[in-house]
Write a structure and sequence with these properties.
Blueprint: H1 9-28, E1 33-35, H2 42-47, H3 79-89, E2 96-98, H4 103-117, E3 132-137, H5 141-149, E4 153-160, E5 163-164, H6 166-175, E6 179-184, H7 198-206, E7 215-219, H8 240-246, E8 253-258, E9 270-273, H9 276-286, H10 295-305, H11 308-337, E10 344-345, E11 354-357, H12 363-372, E12 375-377, E13 394-397, H13 404-427
Helix pairs in contact: 1-13, 4-5, 7-8, 11-13, 12-13
The chain binds 4'-deoxy-4'-aminopyridoxal-5'-phosphate.
4'-deoxy-4'-aminopyridoxal-5'-phosphate is lined by residues 38, 102-104, 140, 185, 190, 219, 221, 258, 260, 265, 270.
């Protein structure tokens, strides 16, 4: 088949007619398929079922330092849980606070604290007429939801294959002291699957910022989520803490991680790591609103995952389940669309998503068509601040939740919708 752009109008119209028939057949099946959210499949959740049996007696509730985890206390986390989460955060246990079931909550609370109190003696951000935030795009919709909810002005900056466009980031932070932060998913990013290069990490750590209380929100949600089984093929990330210390900006970052996509989303444990001064401040403020987090769950996680090696072995089991799904996405998109032209997509080495760029002006139409045929996708625009993709192009594909046979069907529908939207655009 010729590329759509090479067809004359009559050829393209007859192709569109054919596609609409194919689409009607999909619709008639009454499908109900979902490629919207980055959720593990039931098969992946089963991997963590033994976690629930790690505590079954009073004796099991005692931590290594003798703490009875059934009771209040130990706000910043059990020593063994700090050690475990430190491996995910690539940091020292003493710089870690173990939180509750959501790293997103830790992030939202960190923004709120800076707004209300400033940080390390700086003016509370809420006292500025307005503050701004750098949002690499495409990015994670819930990050953008946090900053939007606080009325923070979001500035999109393009993601390149090595991380955000640093020339642009450096320019923005240098000139305006109301620019207070940046969202980063530095490894296997959501949705692009990008791991920041050493150069990008160093530039973030060293760049001159007009705001001396500028903070990098380093959400390492996919730090151990490799798809490749061999270490040599797995991405490595330079430690932002080390880079910031070397650059004499030791307080510039907050690191976040959780076990949401390691064990049980919504029933895992989260953690924040930061410089000693930041950690002391966070603990002080945190202590006013929480007495202690769920230490029994911390114990369960330590006993189940054990240490960095145990974590890696567990993640390999996830990768074995996920790899065929990502391969399927790559194959179906290549077979369905490479000859049609106009579209690009990522081939991630880790994480949970494929980032798909449709021809400009087509994304909303594609997602709408898919929905009407029973395939739910993440809303078009969701990967941009304010849900506004100025190109109406990017769509996040989340292939992890459906079983393979459902994923194949959903991708067939998706490919058909992409072709319809593109043909309609060219004929308009
Ligand atoms: N950060 C990123 C980049 C994510 O993709 C997700 C889950 N989709 C989260 C955070 C949410 O993490 P948690 O469950 O720990 O709040």
């Amino acid at each position: 088949m010729a590329a759509f752009e090479q067809m004359d109008r009559a050829e393209l119209q007859s192709e569109l007619d054919r596609l609409k028939e194919e689409y009607a057949q999909f619709k008639a099946k009454g499908l109900s398929l979902n490629m919207a959210r980055g959720k593990p499949s039931a098969e992946q959740l089963d991997l963590s079922l033994p976690l629930l049996s790690c505590i079954s007696s009073a004796q099991d509730c005692i931590a290594e330092d003798g703490t009875d985890c059934r009771n209040y206390g130990v706000l910043d986390g059990l020593p063994e849980a700090k050690r475990l989460m430190a491996t995910m955060l690539d940091d020292a246990p003493e710089n870690v606070i173990v939180g509750g079931n959501s790293s997103l909550t830790l992030m939202g609370n960190a923004v709120a604290r800076c707004l209300d109190f400033g940080t390390l003696g700086s003016k509370p951000w809420a006292q500025y007429p307005g503050i701004k935030w750098i949002c690499p795009v495409p990015g994670y919709d819930r990050h953008f939801g946090i900053t939007e909810s606080f009325g923070i002005e979001m500035i999109p900056v393009k993601m390149n294959e090595n991380g955000p466009d640093m020339d642009e980031v450096e320019r923005i932070v240098a000139e305006d002291d109301s620019v207070k932060g940046i969202w980063c998913v530095p490894k296997y990013s959501n949705p692009g699957g990008v791991t920041y290069s050493k150069d990008v990490v160093r530039r973030l750590a060293t760049m001159p910022c007009a705001a001396n209380d500028f903070r990098i929100f380093w959400d390492n949600a996919y730090s151990v989520h490799h798809l490749n089984p061999f270490k040599a093929d797995q991405d490595q990330l330079l430690d932002i803490a080390e880079a910031c210390r070397e650059a004499s900006n030791p307080d510039r970052y907050f690191k976040f991680a959780s076990t949401s996509k390691v064990t049980l989303p919504g029933a895992g444990i989260s953690a924040i790591a930061a410089s000693p001064d930041n950690i002391a401040e966070i603990k002080k403020r945190m202590a006013t609103t929480v007495i202690s987090y769920d230490k029994l769950n911390q114990l369960r996680h330590v006993r189940f995952l054990k240490n960095a090696d145990g974590l890696a072995a567990h993640m390999e089991k996830h990768a074995d389940i996920l790899r065929p799904k990502f391969t399927l996405v790559e194959n179906e998109l290549t077979m369905g669309l490479s000859e049609v032209g106009g579209c690009t997509w990522t081939k991630p080495r880790g994480g949970y998503f494929v980032s798909f760029d449709a021809p400009e002006g087509c994304a909303k139409r594609i997602v709408q068509l898919a929905k009407e045929a029973g395939v739910t996708m993440t809303d078009a625009g969701a990967t941009w601040p304010y849900k506004h993709d100025p190109y109406d192009s990017n769509i996040r594909i989340a292939p992890t939740l459906p079983p393979l046979y459902e994923l194949r069907e959903a991708l067939n529908v998706f490919v058909c919708c992409v072709k319809i939207a593109y043909a309609e655009k060219l004929l308009a």
